[in-house]
Amino acid sequence: MLRIDENILEKNAVAIKVDGVLDQDAILILKNVCDRYLNEKKDVFLNLEGLVHISREGRNFIRDIQPSVSIANLPKFM
Question: Any idea what DSSP says for residue 72?
């Protein structure tokens, strides 16, 4: 299960806090949220502090999206 909290920081920036498990099913949800803001040319700050597990596909997704977003609190198990 994945929980995503979106917080508009300013006109062109959003913070996205992610809690739970980032697995194959949850990747599509997080990708859609990130893509929505990236398509609007907003700066995206992704806070991964609340993740308790990341699948192989989830790790690959985070690596792929890193050039486009700022990532904070990357779990040690990543």
Answer: E
Let me know: does 69 contact 38? Beta carbons within 8 Å.
Answer: yes
Tokens representing residue 3 in the block: 């929980």
The β-bridge relationship of strands 13-22 and 43-54 is parallel
Please give the chain's pLDDT, 78 residues, in tens.
899 999 999 999 999 999 999 999 999 999 999 999 999 999 999 999 999 999 999 999 999 999 999 999 988 877
Taking only Cα atoms into account, the Rg of the chain, rounded to an integer number of angstroms, comes to 11
User: Of 54, 45, 48, whose CA–CA distance to 74 is shortest?
Assistant: 48
Question: By the 8 A CB rule, do 47 and 62 touch?
Answer: no
β-strand partners of 2:
20
